[in-house]
Amino acid sequence: MALHFTLLDGRLHDRAAFTCGTPALDTYLREQAGQHQRDGIATTHVLADDRTPGRVLGYCSLSAAQLHLHDLQPPDRKRLPAYPVPAVRIGRLAVATEAQGRGYGRLLLGHAANCACALRQALGVRLLVVDAKDERAASFYAAFGLRPTAEKALTLYLRLGNT
Ligand SMILES: CC(C)(COP(=O)(O)OP(=O)(O)OC[C@H]1O[C@@H](n2cnc3c(N)ncnc32)[C@H](O)[C@@H]1OP(=O)(O)O)[C@@H](O)C(=O)NCCC(=O)NCCS
To answer: Which atom of ligand 1 is nearest to the CA of 139?
Structure first.
């Protein structure tokens, strides 16, 4: 089994078959993700197996974002200028119900972080940001080192880079 990431392709990916246990995330993939990708609102990255490339094992959608400096925890504000901090936002992240518990959520999060780091070759990106849908989802992200923002416990961020 060889896994790969690819951008959502409406002609290839079977969006209708995807269910993750959270209806809003299924509906997003089915009804909005393609349009958002065409409109430059968010890109959707699909995790699939080479043998069944049309089957969506999981996905995450990414877009440009920013956090205010005061959203960051004090140690993370050091050396930053006093204006909004550029970021990549994970708008949505989900793994198909039958594929959960195999490390795919971890892979999707790692892929999002890699994409954000790769963008730093072209533009400033300091943070990876996610709006968790509830406390359970927040604890998933917190386990990978994302920190809650000062004001909203369900918005978490990861500092990119070593400084
Ligand atoms: C949350 C979700 C993305 C996790 O995906 P997954 O593929 O099952 O997770 P993984 O197998 O990669 O698990 C990685 C780690 O996270 C932990 N984990 C998984 N789901 C978790 C959850 N809901 N809360 C806290 N921790 C969780 C696992 O125990 C595992 O930890 P370990 O390495 O110490 O064993 C998936 O369950 C899902 O899509 N749920 C429905 C939608 C959702 O809640 N999305 C969250 C974004 S708002």
So the answer is: 25
- How many structural domains compose the chain? 1
Q: Which two tokens stand for residue 120?
A: 């730093």
**Distances in whole angstroms, Cα of residue 163 to Cα of each of 68, 124, 160:** 18, 14, 8
Q: Is the predicted pLDDT of residue 17 greater than 70, yes or no? A: yes
Taking CB atoms and a 6 Å cutoff, what residues make up the pocket around ligand 1? 20-22, 25, 93-95, 100-106, 132-133, 136-137, 139-140, 143
Confidence label for 163 from pLDDT (cuts 50, 70 and 90):
low
pLDDT tens-place string over residues 39-53: 999 999 999 999 999
Domain residues for the domain of 153 are: 3-159
CATH at residue 40: 3.40.630.30
Instruction: Compute the distance from residue 112 Cα to the ligand 1 centre, in Å.
Output: 15
pTM (predicted TM-score): 0.95
| CA nearest ligand 1 atom 20, residue | 140
**Residues across the chain:** 163
In 3D, which of 156, 150, 124 has the Cα closest to residue 137? 156
